[in-house]
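Private note to self, pasted from the team thread so I don't lose it. Backbone tokens:
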């Protein structure tokens, strides 16, 4: 079943934000978007409401709608929550990991290798989300899965800045190859360490270099 037009437009706007064609903090004008997509303003309004529900845009009374401009505190809170959720979910997934799950994850990592060879950061970040979501989906806790799903857009938005902090696309790919190897090892401690190292690297780079990516101080 095809998505409603408003959802398709919301998805395209997300991609433009992640590709940095639309900047964090930029104002989104209904009239301009309606003309650009050749749709009614009501359709654009619905699309922006979708993005607002995902906390990717904010609407301000008498000021308009803007792409969310995240603060250092936002980053810190997101990384802390992601660490808590993923370290638990990944270790719980070990006992539920079957051969067909491993093959699915290997296929994702193989795709990441291809994107790494092509130096396609956006493709890598999309596959990063796919990999982590797949493993979290195996944890057996429907509430953790639901909470994690609700954070997808915000996590993906933070990822858009990471390309400048990894030495190469291969380094980013290698981290996920190591995460998969850890899962296959069935060693809870190794998995927990790998997940925390992976996410804490993001924290160190984003918070340590936040002035470079123009996140606001609080």
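Design output:
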């Amino acid at each position: 079943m095809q998505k409603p037009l408003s959802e398709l437009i919301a998805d395209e706007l997300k991609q433009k934000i992640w590709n940095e064609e639309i900047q964090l903090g930029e104002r989104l004008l209904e009239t301009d978007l309606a003309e650009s997509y050749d749709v009614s303003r009501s359709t654009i309004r619905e699309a922006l409401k979708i993005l607002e529900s995902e906390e990717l845009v904010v609407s301000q009374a008498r000021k308009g709608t803007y792409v969310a401009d995240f603060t250092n505190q936002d980053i810190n809170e997101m990384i802390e929550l992601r660490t808590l959720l993923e370290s638990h979910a990944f270790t719980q997934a070990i006992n539920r990991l079957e051969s067909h799950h491993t093959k699915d994850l290997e296929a994702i990592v193989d795709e990441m290798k291809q994107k790494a060879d092509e130096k396609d950061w956006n493709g890598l970040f999309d596959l990063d989300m796919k990999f982590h979501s797949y493993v979290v989906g195996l944890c057996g806790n429907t509430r953790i899965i639901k909470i994690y799903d609700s954070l997808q857009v915000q996590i993906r938005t933070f990822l858009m800045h990471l390309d400048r902090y990894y030495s190469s696309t291969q380094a980013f790919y290698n981290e996920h190859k190591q995460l998969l190897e850890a899962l296959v090892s069935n060693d809870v401690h190794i998995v927990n360490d790998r997940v925390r190292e992976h996410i804490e690297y993001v924290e160190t780079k984003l918070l340590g270099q936040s002035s470079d990516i123009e996140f606001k101080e609080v």
